[in-house]
Structures are given as structure tokens and as C-alpha cells.
Amino acid sequence: MWFFVIGELWIFTCYFACYIYDRGQNPELFLAGQQLLSRGIGVLNTIILLTSSLFVALCVQATRARDVATASRFLALGGGCGVLFMLVKAGEWYVKIRERLPPSLHEFFLYYFMFTALHLIHVSLGLLILVLLWRELNPMPRRRFAAAPGAEQPRVAFIEVGATYWHIVDALWIAIFALVYLMR
Amino acid sequence: MSGSALTAVAAPSASVETLRLPSRKLDQWICYWSIPFFYTLFGLIFAALGRIMPPPSPTASVPDILEYMQRPGLRVGMALLALSLGLASLSSGVIVVQMKRMEGVSPALAYAYLTALAVAGVPGCLFPGFVFALGGFRPEYAPEIHVMLYDLGFLSFVGSLGCFVVQYVVFAVAIFLDRRTIFPKWLGYLTIWALVTELVAAPIWVTRTGPFAWNGLLSFWQGTAIFVGWEFCLCVCLHRAIKNQPLEELGCEG
Amino acid sequence: MTAYLRSPLTAVWLILTSVTFASWWLGASGDSHRLGVSLSITGSVVAIALLKTRLVFWYFMEVRSAPAWLRWTCDGWLAGLAVVIFALYSCGS
Fold first, then answer.
1. How distant is the Cα of B241 from the closest Cα of chain A, in angstroms?
2. If pLDDT is split at 50, 70 and 90, which confidence band does B1 have?
3. For a Cys staple, B230 with which of A66, A169, B194, B219, CB 3.0–4.6 Å?
4. Domain locations in chain C?
């Protein structure tokens, strides 16, 4: 999984490099486009994702302590934040698309939509992984009855791997937030 | 079990087994070696002859486009393509055979892979081939038509990278679910990583300049480079999978 | 459940959130009518982002207790990204 993480970091670095280069070529355009973005929403999304990361990290702690009930609760909270992130992002997009953006800012918004769309795909994949983690913590009833109670322990390594992916999603967003919404 | 009995009989006569290996799996090896052959041909057709890879600029002028379409290399290349694209099915065939060996994985995934690749190959390869061939073999068309063919060919060729996503997803899911580890898990992660870069080809319809154009750094170069790397890794893993396939499994499917 | 919340991870989260607000303030700072190119703001914003990412790596992803090669790779990537960003940024403006 860490190789996958490094791979993702690599491709996003390429994207960021292109973005910064293009930004340097055309600072006015990018600045103008950035003005149209809502920094507040960006901050909100950042906080949401940071919180979800916290919950997922705590879930890992709880799993290690074999406290499956608490771990599941943290996982659900983390996943809930993830869904919230997507909803806020969808709202942001909806507003942007309705606004009929000036075509001169095309280049900036292409980057904006591409980065956020790619990130959203990662968030969706992350949510899917969280669901798999949930299933690991709360196996289907027939599995539970098949073994003696307490015999089926969740695989901590599996939970850790899934959590790692979720944290990368968070880390990538931190970078996107800084580069797209904030930097000048 | 017939399987273990066969191994017990085959084991002492190791020399006989090594003699029989090439001929028993020959069908798979032929399909396997078709992969590098096909891709070399692909490189020749698309890069050397057709000069479709790397793609020229979406903002090329009309005379440049006309000159591009009339090159004899393009015509030869596309004719070759029409004849040889079928080779790609050999590679899907052998991968499907290995996918069906996976335990805990429904054969539906293997068939989905086969179909996804076949469906994606049409807009990704064959259709642009025909479009460019049309431009090459019918020089009498009006320049506007040639410009349209130029656009259509490249948008189809580069833009269909996303069609291959289903194929990748199915393959990755199968690898992760597989209890027998026919293909290593890292290949599954690599596949998902590669498919993300394929998705970046989507904006080529929207922009004609910059990194998201069809000749752009992000939409074309990165996706293609990673695809080449992935294909290479796939070949290595496939080679190992075929080699490690126990003899008693052969001829048992179907 | 609250017992878990008292872990150092929550402290990290607090740092991350407050630093986010700081970077928001920085990003919006300058003047209200025309925000211009500014190396210092970009520098601090990017530095904060890199710091945040490092915290996420170090604590949430537990790279702190990971084998040396992974720690070096993560730090190396962060450093590399910083270099790339500033190099390209300086090229342009």
C-alpha cells in the first residue's frame, strides 16, 4: 500500500508542478480565477477532512486495543465526514457551474475542476475502502455465528492499510487547498 | 485426488516433465509472446510510421494538418493496423485464462475483462486507425473534412483512455480477491494507480492547449508513460503466472 | 470513547485546525480590493501546508514509528515538493 501511496504522491506532484508552472506563466489569470473561489468553503472542507482523518486514526487505535465497538463508531464518524466533504464539494461545484464563469479564466478553472474531481475520485475510493474496513470490524452475521464468539478478531493490519489510504486523501487535499485556494 | 496422483507420478521423471512443459503450455506461451510482438508493431505503426504518437498539436494550422494526413507513412501504418489489431485478443485470452485460475473470484470478472478490453479497443485503436486511413486514402476531400478527421482521430485515440478504466478496475478487483495470488498484490495497486492517470485524459475535449490537451504533459505523456510501465510489469507477472501454473490444471477448464 | 479522544492525536488535530485558520487568514490578507502576487504569502502558505502534511504523515499515518526508509522517503518527498514549487514559482514571477 505504501508503494501505491508513493505512486499517488508522485502523480500529484507532476500535476502540481504543471499547475505552478502554468501559474507562473499567467499570474494575473490565475489570481483572478482564485478570487472567484470561496476560501471559507475550502477551509471548511479542510477541517472536515482533518476531522475525518482524526476519527480514522482513532479507529486504528481502538482496533489495536480490540475495542471493536468504539473502532466501528470512529470509523462511521470518519466516513460520515467523508460524505460531508463530498456534499460540500458538490455544493461548491453546483454554485460555480451555475455562475457561468468567464471563459478567459478557462485555464484556471480547468485546473480547479480537474484537481478537485481527481481528488473526489480518491475520496470515493477511500469511502469504499472505509466500508470494507467496516465489514472487517463488523463481519456479516453468518461469519459471526460460524466461529466461537471472540474467535474472529479483525485483522489490525488490514485496518491500518485502509486508514493509510484515507490519510493520503487528507494530505492531498491539504496540498490542493494551499495551492489552489491560498497561494499567490 | 487425481491432481496429487499426477504429481506423484510426474515428480520422479523430472526430465520428462521439463521436456513436456513447453508443449503443454505452448498455447499460452504463444499468446504471451504475442504481447511484446504486438506492442512493438504498435510502436512501429503509431510512432514511427503514423507519427500519431506523440500527437501533434491540436492547434495546428490547416496546411499542416493536410500535410500530416497525406504522409505515405500514415497510410501504410493504418493498413498494417487494420490487419494486426486482432493480435490484441491473444493477450486478453491468456490473461483471462490466468484470471479464471483465481480462487474466490467469480469467472464473471475474467469475462468482464475480456469484454471491456474488446470494447475499449474499438475507440482507442481501431476507430482512429480508420479515421486516419480515410484521411490518408481520400486526399480529394475538402480541407475542412481533413481537419475534422484529424480532430476526431486524436480525440478518439487519446480520449478513450478512460474506456480502459473498467478493464483495469476489474483486473485489480480480481487480483485483490484472489486467494491464490496468481498475480501479486502489488500489481493490483499498480493497476489502480495507472487507471487514475488514464482518467486525466478526459479534459482533452475541452481544451486545445496546455497540459490537458491531447498532446499535453498530463493528459497524454504521463498516462502513456505509466501505461508502458504497467504493461511491462503485467508481462513480468504474467510470465511468472504461466510458468508457475501446475501442469495438472491445464486442459481442466471448460 | 472519550478516553480515546484524549490521545496525542487529538492534540495534533488541534494544531492542524488552528494552523488551517492561520493559513486562511494569510491567504486573505493583503488588501481587500486587489490581491496580488506575493512571495511571502505563498511561501508561508506552502510552508504551512507542508508542515500540516508532515504532521499527518508523522502522527496519523504513524510514519514516526515507521522504518527509516519510509521516514526518509516521506521527508524527501516533502522537501522535493517544496523545491519544485518554489523553483517553478520563481521561474514564473
1. 22
2. very low
3. B194
4. 2-92
Contacts of C57 in chain A (CB under 8 A): 167, 171
Q: Domain residues of chain A, as ranges?
A: 2-182
Identify whether the C-beta of residue A25 lies closer than 8 Å to the C-beta of residue C92.
yes
Residue C36 scores a pLDDT above 80: no
Q: How far, in Å, CA of B79 to CA of B117, rounded? A: 22
Tell whether the model's pLDDT for residue B123 goes beyond 50. Answer: yes
Residues of A in contact with B218 (CB under 8 A): 14-15, 18
Long-range contacts of B126-132 (CB under 8 A, 24+ apart): B126/B81, B126/B82, B126/B85, B127/B156, B128/B52, B128/B152, B128/B153, B128/B154, B128/B156, B128/B157, B129/B78, B129/B81, B129/B82, B129/B85, B130/B78, B130/B82, B131/B156, B132/B50, B132/B52, B132/B69, B132/B74, B132/B78
Contacts of B192 in chain A (CB under 8 A): 4, 125
**Radius of gyration, alpha carbons of chain A:** 19
Nearest-Cα residue of chain C relative to residue A22: C92
Q: How far is CA A6 from CA B75, B224, B244, in A?
A: 42, 19, 30
CATH topology of domain A2-182: Four Helix Bundle (Hemerythrin (Met), subunit A) (1.20.120)
Q: Is C36 on the interface with A (CB under 8 A)?
A: yes
